[in-house]
Every structure is written in structure tokens, then in C-alpha cells.
Known about the structure:
Bound molecules: histidyl-adenosine monophosphate
Distance between the termini: 50 Å
Amino acid sequence: MKIQSLRGMPxxxxxxxxxxxxxxxxxxxxxHCFGTYEIRTPLLESTELFSRSAGNSSxxxxxxxxxxxxxxxxxxxxxxxxxxxxxxxxIQKKQEQEKHKLWYQxxxxxxERPQKGRFRQFHQVGVEYLGFEEGISEYELxxxxxxxxxxxxxxxxxxxxxxxxxxxxKESFCESLVSFLNPHINELHEKDQARLExxxxxxxxxxxxxxxxxxxxxxxxxxxxxxxxxxxxQNLVDAYSNHCDIQIDQSLVRGLDYYTGIVFEAVSQExxxxxxxxxxxxxxxxxxxxxxxxxxxxxxxxxxxxIVELLSAEIIKxxxxxxxxxxxxxxxxxxxxxxxxxxxxxxxxxxxxxxSNGSLKSQLxxxxxxxxxxxxxxxxxxxxxxxxxxxxxSQGGEQELLSFKEVIEKYTNLQEK
Length: 417
Ligand code: HAM
């Protein structure tokens, strides 16, 4: 029996990763110009970190955590998200009172039912701004989301945004929602009945039509948050409404319990049922919840598998490729030296070496198949005379004889036609 990968944990092959690399390099440009710095935390953490941060009622902790006991009988878990680890790291370093603009990336693990766009191992790129109270940081993060989408060619998306008020407002709203829904409990779908029991706020983003109809007459978040919060939300929306489709969505509560204040998601219809490709918000209480000092916190995470689905193919610029063909039995050490010199002269070009003694014809076929624009061919006669053949593969195969010195010079200045 052949061994298979685990369900919901796909392999990623070079052809898949081309888009990932373009996305990652564009993101680095953005993080650089926002003055945001990378942090790396472990994939494994103590289970308590996630049960205390995500909230006992969230699915992420109740059903989806990959937890097991290590050899010391300690309960440890694969991280389902990055924010809790970042906060843990800052508390551990006793830096809660400093300001941090951080980003991270890597695999996350959730035992969910796999489907299109939903995996058990998936990847996030996250941003966390720590130490900044509600205000300009909300603006900066929404700006960053817009810039990311623009730079990678995503235009067809909506930003859904809501304000959850402070912890008290959230609690009073929750109570009111429960009192409103309890008399109608039998009209709710089984799933929503369970949600009402474990995490009432999640009933708001139920996909059941009958639940949504019932909620129309229910309490509204807006009535529980202060005027200040309402104005903040409205001003934020107004500031961006000329630049993107941004809409207040009062049913947006998000899956993790730690949010208070602004929450948002970027969604795209092109993704099907799993339409959120960015999610985030403010979570000022998490540091306290994890035993740290007061620390403001706001951030978001991008689902990489989902965002690369949307990435416009036009922004992928294939690197210039030159085939390096050694023809003849006698492979002289000199040829390695030439390849080394070429790569040192211009490392933006892919020097595609075929590492075989195949015939000239078969290597040229390979070079064409691999989309090489040019080929450098070195046969025994050329080698003796310190020369190579330079062949233009796109222009009807024109070729010329160049000295070693000339080929290095040509390679150094080579550009895509
Ligand atoms: P989240 O909404 O749970 O938030 O995840 C963020 C994004 O990760 C989602 O919008 C989605 O694109 C992607 N994602 C989540 N689960 C899966 C899955 N099973 N398969 C594929 N993609 C998935 C958080 O994780 C928060 N830590 C975000 C945050 C950072 N809030 C504040 N700072």
C-alpha cells in the first residue's frame, strides 16, 4: 500500500508555488514600506495558550485543535492561528509596554471538514500591531489590506466591517440575543441551536435562511455600542468607500472570541462558499487573558491558499531562462567554471543546466520545453578554443560563436526582449 498524505493537507508543487512566490515577494515590499518587521514563533505551543485565547466556546478550540500529549505528558497543540503565539512571545519577553508592528507567515492547523478553499493544514500571512489604541492603526491596517490587493491585482472584493464595542457591550448584546432567540429555539436549525448554547454570537453568521429571517426582528449590535464607536466605524467606512467596496455588516462577529472593537473581513465571490481571504480585528483583552499586562492589539491574517486563487496571472513575471548545454562525451572541468562565472555575473537569470550527457538535439528540445529564451552550447571543439555557441531560441535559432569573455559580457547585460 502506498502511503498517502493526510486528508486536508495537500502537497504544494513547483507549478503551484509560482503564484505563492510572486505573492510573497510583493508582500515583502509592502511590509518593508510600512515599517513592519517579521516575527517567527513555534508551530507547537502548550494547549492552554489556545484554549485561553480563542475562547472556550469557539470551534477552533472545541473541535478543531490538533492536540496531543508529548513524551512528558504535557498537552501541546499545533497552532490553529498566529495571534495568540505572537502575544505570548511579547509577554514572555516582557515587552507589552512597547510598540510593535509585526508580521508572520507559516502553516496553521485546524481539524475542519475539508472542502474547496478549506484545509486542515493551510497557510496564513498575518500582521499584528501591538501597543496602539483604537484610532489611526485601524486606518493603517485597512490601507495595508487595500495596498496588498492592489499590488497583486485583486479588484473584485468586498470589505465587510463591524464594531463589536467593548467587552461589556458585547456581553449585553449577547444576553439580549439569547433572550430574543430562546423562545424561538425550536424554529432554529440544529446547528444554530447548538451555537445558541455554546457561542450565541455565532448564530449571527448562520447560513440558514430561516435563522437570518428570524434575526431581522432581533437585537442589533449597533444599539449596544457607544456613539463614539458607531462614529468611529462610520468614519472608517467613509474614508475608504471611494477606494473599495466597504460595507458595514452587523452580523460579522468572527470565529475567535477575543475580538472587541473593529472586526473586518475581505471576501470575494470568486472563491465560492469559503469566500473570506482576509480576516482580522482588534483584540485588546488578549494580553490580560494570557497573563500579560494591558496591551492594545489589532491585526489581520490572510489565507494564502485563498488569496493566491485570486491573484492575477498577469503579475507573474517569468524569469529569463538560458539553457546551458554541454555537448560531447568529454565534460571538462572548464564547463563548470563557465556556469559558475555566468551565475556570478548575473543571478537574475535562470541558467538551466540539464546535467546529462544527452545528445545536443535532446538537450535543445529540453531547453525549448523549459521555455529557455537562449542556449549556450559548449562542444569539445569550442572548449578547445575557449569559445561557446550562443543560440537565440526564439528568433529562428540564429547563433554566433563567442569567446568566454564575450559570453560573460553578453550574459551580464542580457534582458528580456
Ligand atoms: P481567521 O479568520 O480564523 O482569523 O483566519 C484568517 C484567514 O485564514 C481566513 O480569512 C481564511 O482566509 C484563512 N483560513 C482560516 N481557516 C482556513 C482553512 N481551514 N483553510 C484555508 N484557509 C483558512 C485568524 O486566524 C486571526 N488570527 C486573524 C487575526 C490576526 N486577527 C487579529 N490578528
